[in-house]
């Protein structure tokens, strides 16, 4: 079984706006990406040679300037190319999925590609034809924005004909060319009144492969339904001249299995749909069925039983935290291996979206969220994530990352977002997934905001952790630190302890320095000796605020306060150590789970109807603690070291921050009183503007999103308090 990779390369159209994933993830302008890909040990790469790219204005005017150097590099690398010609697109602007000329146009493009790159033997002329037809011609999300079943079947047949004609042209040049035909494959489950709808959905999902295999004849369950739209002659022509895939290429996501429920009142946050006869909600089956749906293993077994054609898993991606991405990749690999042992001919597993994707949370209909893959492109440099290391481990047979063996979110109780619905299943399916023993993450700082947030994040993510207080680990006692590391044997140690009272440090600098500088260095040094990576935290207060530009990781500290001096000393001493140490500078914590922070104080004061004074002339980079905790864990899992700045990516005055908190919490913004910082009776000097930015990557969501999360959580807390 081989390890393949792929680059998210969708070029789809919404109205007159084109969405180009190659541009959004930056791959379009980075030749160096190919060297990064080739370092992973992949056997083959799904790579775009898109019709929209090569002939954007006219079918006879082709531009190979982007494709040529990249294909030349891949040809000499030993990594096979699986050529993709249309990927969730509708072709260039002069055609679309409902254009009768679409099949011939794509076939002409395929011929030109095959003539230029006659060494390519594996082809996917059209990616996911059933899925693309649904989104473009049934749901109206993508161009040409049709919303009727007749258009769906016409768009599907156009893509199938395009695939057949394209492979005919390719095989005239390279008789050994193989068709690797992808589509999303999940199963629909349903309540009893919707069993016919689920049955139809479960038949329709096979339509693309069935058509290519010549199975949609008058005896096929879908033939009469499709023929009723005036398409019987096309169905017969396809059946008479089929183009069976050489590999059935299955794309299965954690949300591919669906559940249809007519009890729409049980899902107040979900907009119901319908089939003209009954209204229902269509939800992710993994979020409601108990036990869980069949998942990837079931999909692969069904595909093998139906076709007995070799199978490949051609997209494995999970837009989630790094540990969950690793687990999903490892799980897909182990499932494929298990099926291989059961004599299912599984040829490959593919890490998809190697450079991530952008906007799939909106189904590419509007700007959205970026999700990293094996590489993270949010910094000045493309950064390998821990997933890249896992792929190298899989390709060489080494054991993957310590977090890989622990259950993923889809295997833990948190997967259920709705009242569970019983699914008939064997007794084995009802047994809980065992949680293997794993080395934990050690977190020092049980009483602090950050320590508790990190522990909460670990618990939610299924990461074993140990949270210690001063009795279990004292930073001022190196022997205590060593005993804790020896007792718990963690794979990662995080120091979230230390002195946090900025003004009090002015009259207790020795105690502050002992905790924040000496203690932090003791912690990192003990981790060095045990061969354990560590994480420590620093602050924007290491800067004096006089630089006209925002401060990045390379900016030189010049603290104004005792607290800032203690943190700067820790940065200096830990950086000098030889081990694997990550130092995170952050600022202006806010959290709904701890009353000891600025945003909480704003909300609490305003709810009492009292004014809140905030500095209008001092600027900070607010950081939502739950976002910070997740980003820190991701970076630690990635094995990052050195200095990182992590904030919610906005410099703002304290008074403007207070106003935005008030507005989000539906409180009276007129009660915010902007004042000069000098009037707030601060003992310690603060920098006027210590806005933090990162040259390594802006990993946290926007401040707007963070404030919305804070306000939502505060509302939920108040609702629970009222209910109690």
From TrEMBL:
Known catalytic reactions: dTDP-beta-L-rhamnose + NADP(+) = dTDP-4-dehydro-beta-L-rhamnose + NADPH + H(+)
Keyword hit for Amino-acid biosynthesis: no
InterPro entries on file: dTDP_dehydrorham_reduct, GH, NAD(P)-bd_dom_sf, RmlD-like-bd
Q: Which residues form the RmlD-like substrate binding domain?
A: 441-695
Keywords (A to Z) from UniProt: NADP, Oxidoreductase
Q: Where are the transmembrane segments?
A: none
One Pfam family it belongs to: RmlD_sub_bind
Question: How many cofactor units bind, and how?
Answer: Binds 1 Mg(2+) ion per monomer.
Task: Write down the required cofactor(s).
Answer: Mg(2+)
> Does the entry feature the keyword NADP, yes or no?
yes
Which pathway is it part of? Carbohydrate biosynthesis; dTDP-L-rhamnose biosynthesis
The EC number(s) given in the record are 1.1.1.133
The GO terms this record gives for MF are: dTDP-4-dehydrorhamnose reductase activity
The protein's job, in short, is:
Catalyzes the reduction of dTDP-6-deoxy-L-lyxo-4-hexulose to yield dTDP-L-rhamnose.
By its UniProt entry, which PANTHER family does this protein fall under?
A: DTDP-4-DEHYDRORHAMNOSE REDUCTASE, METHIONINE ADENOSYLTRANSFERASE 2 SUBUNIT BETA
Instruction: State the similarity comment.
Output: Belongs to the dTDP-4-dehydrorhamnose reductase family.
This chain belongs to which protein, by name?
dTDP-4-dehydrorhamnose reductase
What is the source species? Sphingomonas aliaeris
């Amino acid at each position: 079984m081989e390890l393949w990779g792929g680059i998210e390369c969708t070029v789809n159209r919404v109205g007159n706006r084109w969405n180009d994933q190659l541009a959004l993830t930056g791959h379009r302008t980075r030749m160096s990406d190919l060297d990064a890909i080739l370092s992973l040990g992949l056997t083959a790469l799904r790579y775009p040679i898109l019709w929209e790219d090569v002939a954007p204005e006219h079918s006879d005017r082709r531009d190979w300037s982007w494709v040529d150097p990249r294909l030349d590099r891949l040809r000499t690398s030993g990594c096979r190319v699986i050529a993709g010609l249309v990927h969730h697109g509708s072709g260039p602007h002069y055609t679309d999925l409902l254009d009768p000329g679409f099949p011939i146009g794509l076939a002409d493009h395929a011929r030109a590609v095959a003539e230029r790159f006659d060494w390519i033997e594996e082809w996917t002329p059209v990616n996911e034809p059933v899925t693309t037809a649904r989104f473009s011609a049934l749901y109206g999300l993508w161009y040409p924005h049709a919303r009727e079943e007749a258009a769906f079947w016409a768009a599907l047949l156009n893509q199938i004909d395009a695939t057949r004609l394209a492979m005919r042209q390719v095989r005239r040049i390279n008789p050994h060319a193989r068709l690797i035909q992808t589509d999303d494959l999940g199963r629909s489950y349903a309540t009893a009144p919707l069993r016919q709808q689920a049955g139809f959905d479960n038949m329709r999902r096979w339509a693309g492969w069935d058509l290519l295999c010549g199975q949609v004849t008058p005896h096929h369950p879908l033939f009469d339904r499709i023929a009723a739209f005036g398409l019987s002659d096309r169905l017969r022509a396809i059946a008479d001249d089929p183009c069976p895939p050489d590999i059935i290429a299955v794309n299965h996501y954690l949300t591919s299995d669906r559940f249809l429920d007519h009890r729409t009142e049980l899902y107040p946050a979900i907009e119901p749909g319908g089939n003209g006869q009954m209204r229902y909600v269509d939800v992710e089956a993994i979020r409601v069925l108990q036990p869980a749906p069949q998942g990837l293993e079931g999909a692969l077994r069904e595909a093998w039983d139906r076709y007995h054609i070799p199978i490949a898993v051609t997209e494995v991606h999970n837009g989630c935290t790094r540990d969950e991405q690793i687990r999903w990749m490892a799980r897909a690999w182990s499932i494929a291996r298990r099926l291989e042992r059961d004599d299912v001919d599984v040829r490959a597993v593919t890490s998809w979206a190697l450079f991530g994707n952008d906007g799939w949370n909106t189904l590419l209909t509007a700007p959205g969220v970026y999700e990293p893959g094996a590489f993270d492109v949010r910094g000045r440099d493309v950064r390998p994530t821990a997933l890249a290391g896992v792929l190298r481990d899989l390709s060489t047979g080494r054991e993957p990352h310590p977090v890989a063996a622990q259950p993923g979110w889809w295997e833990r109780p948190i997967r259920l977002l709705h009242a569970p619905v019983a699914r008939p299943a064997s007794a084995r399916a009802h047994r809980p997934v065992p949680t293997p023993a794993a080395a934990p993450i050690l977190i020092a700082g049980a009483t602090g905001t950050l320590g508790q947030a990190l522990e909460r994040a670990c618990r939610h993510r299924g990461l074993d952790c140990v949270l210690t207080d001063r009795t279990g680990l004292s930073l001022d006692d190196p022997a205590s630190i060593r005993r804790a590391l020896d007792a718990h044997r963690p794979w990662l140690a995080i120091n979230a302890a230390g002195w946090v009272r900025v003004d009090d440090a002015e009259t207790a600098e020795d105690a502050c320095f002992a905790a924040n500088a000496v203690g932090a260095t003791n912690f990192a040094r003990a981790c060095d000796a045990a061969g354990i990576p560590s994480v420590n935290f620093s602050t924007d207060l290491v800067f004096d605020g006089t630089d006209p530009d925002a401060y990045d990781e390379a900016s030189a500290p010049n603290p104004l306060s005792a607290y800032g001096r203690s943190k700067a000393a820790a940065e200096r001493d830990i950086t000098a150590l030889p081990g694997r140490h990550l130092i995170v500078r952050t600022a202006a914590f806010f959290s709904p789970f701890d009353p000891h922070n600025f945003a909480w104080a704003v909300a609490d004061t305003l709810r009492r109807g009292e004014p809140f004074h905030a500095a209008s002339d001092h600027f900070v980079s607010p950081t939502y603690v739950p976002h910070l905790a997740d980003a820190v864990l991701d970076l630690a899992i990635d094995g990052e070291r050195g200095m990182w700045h992590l904030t919610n990516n906005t410099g703002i005055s304290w008074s403007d921050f207070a106003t935005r908190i008030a507005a989000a919490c539906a409180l009276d913004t007129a009660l915010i009183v902007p004042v000069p910082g000098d009037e707030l009776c601060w003992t310690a000097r603060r920098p006027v503007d210590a806005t933090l930015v990162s040259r390594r990557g802006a990993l946290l969501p926007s401040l707007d999103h963070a404030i919305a999360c804070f306000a939502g959580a505060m509302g939920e807390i108040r609702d629970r308090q009222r209910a109690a």
